[in-house]
Amino acid sequence: MKDLVTTFLKEQGVWVALAVGFGAGAYEFFKTKSFGKALSVLLGGFAFGFFCIYPEEVLTKMGEFLNWALSHIRF
Fold first, then answer.
1. Helix (H), strand (E) counts: the chain
2. Residues 63, 3: Cα–Cα separation, whole Å
3. For the chain, which residues make up each domain, given as ranges?
4. Of 13, 16, 20, 72, most Cβ neighbours within 10 A?
5. CA–CA separation, 46 vs 54, rounded Å?
6. CA angle centred on 13, ends 43 and 28, rounded to 5°
7. How far is residue 4 from each of residues 10, 13, 49, 67, measured CA to CA in Å?
8. Per residue in 14-56, pLDDT tens?
């Protein structure tokens, strides 16, 4: 099942994420005339697309960051 999900994300999920990010960014730009808001929405779509292409790497790096943060932050 894991192979099926990762294959689907790598093949179709990336294009869907990029298309949704681009479309939402264009909609935000035309609605508010704010380039900064549109760019942030577009970059969010690119970030989600990167997560779809490299899910194992993203989760590994996030785990390393959380371990580092927990070892350096004192409560």
1. 4, 0
2. 21
3. 2-72
4. 13
5. 12
6. 35
7. 10, 12, 17, 29
8. 888 888 888 988 988 899 898 888 889 888 888 888 888 888 8
